[in-house]
Amino acid sequence: MQQKRTQQEIADFCGFTKSHLSKIEKGKVMPSIGVLAKIADSLGIKISFLLDEDNHKDITHDVHSTVVTQLIKTSKGYSMYPFASAQEDKAMQPFYFETHSHEHKLHKTTHEGEEFLYILEGEMILKIGDQEYHLKEGDGIYFNGNMEHQTIPLTETVKVLDIIS
Description:
This protein has helices spanning 7-14, 18-25, 33-43, 47-51, 64-69, and strands at residues 72-73, 78-82, 93-100, 114-121, 123-128, 131-136, 140-144, 149-153, 157-164. The chain has 165 residues and is an alpha+beta fold.
């Protein structure tokens, strides 16, 4: 509303329907990180602005108990926690992701910026384009977010630190 743009304009820019955008805005659907990135890009803002209304802190300390109790369940079957969501104008957005293979819905995504994944626990396949990478605990991978990518959990639980710039 501050930008005097319609839902239809934003939805068209992002490549999805006005109805889907409306459901996200009303909190009826928790979008994937790729969808959040597209919405933020269309508005010219950071993803963190969409996740936290208090965006004016210089230091944010996220403690473990907060991370694990405030996970946000997405429509794709994984849960996430946006670290430092109160930081305005940061150059990167760190996330904690947790997925369970029986809940995870396979999907492909793209977004602006670069991405770094570090596997904290479990194993997964990361498909980037036609390439597959078998990632285990302690493995890290860095790639261009514009490349179509997909995660496939191989163990019941996979925990990941994900940083998007």
